[in-house]
Amino acid sequence: MLPLLLLLPAAAALAYQAIALLASLVFVERSRMRRAKPLAACTPSVSILKPVHGLDEALDAAIRSHLAQDYPGYELLIGVQDSDDPALPVIRAAFAAYPAAQARLVVCSTKSPNAKVGTLIDLAREARGEILIVNDADIKVPADYVRRVAAKLANPKNGLVTCLYRASSSTSAGLFESIVIATDFIPSTLVAPLVGIDEFGLGSTLGFRRADLDSIGGFAAIQEYIADDYQLAKRIHALGRSCIMSEVVVDTHMADPGWKDVWRHQLRWARTIRVSRPGGYLGLPVTHAGVWAVANLAAGNVGAATALWLARSTMGAVSGFLVLRHWPSLLAAPFLPLWDLWAFAVWLAGYFSRTAWWRGRRITLSSDGRIQETR
Questions:
Q1: pLDDT of residue 1
Q2: In terms of domains, do 132 and 7 share one?
Q3: DSSP state of 130
Q4: Nearest of 361, 80, 50, 53 to residue 226 by alpha carbon
Q5: Is 136 a domain residue?
Q6: What is the distance between the alpha carbons of residues 14 and 9, in angstroms, rounded to a whole number?
Q7: Residue 370 DSSP symbol
Q8: Which residues pair with 76 in a beta bridge?
Q9: Coil, strand or helix: which one is 159?
Q10: What is the pLDDT of residues 199-215, one digit of tens each?
């Protein structure tokens, strides 16, 4: 009886891998077609808002990539919460290297449960652009980034533009997490719009109109939430706008995490998803094909286990390499089903508490994703 019962989740997991593979291929083809078309001539004013907290080895390259954009009439606003932030010399040196760029450093004073959003409240007050683009401190972008993100908002039906990201790290734990991102998280992000879920946004890029931000109550409306990117997308989507994925892939660098850091990071993500989208979180095990491959192999369903193993490895290779050009994912593809055991362990642990580590603090989350306590 057990071998037969295990074929049901195996079939569901196999179907998900097929959908994720299709979603990855669709993204690759659509990106190719979009890049072949000329961009709209319209170039609305753009303000890039970049909150910074502390110094990361990739910060200098990230800032300089924003200062070298092929776009007229944009500005870069970098916000810090501390006038003694160790990142300040790097920021000022980058600004000095691009004297023609419109760039400003803002020491922010607004305090909020989500400190990043407090910084964004102050940056938005200073911004002059009709289009706002927000991204994390360590995000490095190509020269056509602003042009391509802003172009998507020429369509009045689009309300928010986001971008996939490719992670790197100089530690083994960080490399492991970068592969998990490329072969597990990114495919799930691509599946969402393919199956009609039009309510998503990633901290790697959030591009939107200033008017729409004002319509949802500004950044103050989301300052209590840990998943500020999701909450922003949710509210803009509620205005009747679409949330769409750009063809641009940006880069991020994880600051030399150890294994404990990776576990805490993944667990924070899990618990954030659980309180933000509980229904979606409940269904996550269907994406863990490796778990069902191992279970079916133990039960004697060798054919099902083999099909799951091959499907998971193929999907991960396509997502990691064809979508992101992330070489480690291609090399690791045969072992991805084993790494699903890690993902399943994180999923289980996500149910046992609403606490998480974030920016060196232990926080407690409410049932709807608000930050209740920090210590």
A1: 66
A2: no
A3: S
A4: 361
A5: yes
A6: 8
A7: B
A8: 48, 103
A9: strand
A10: 889 999 999 999 999 99
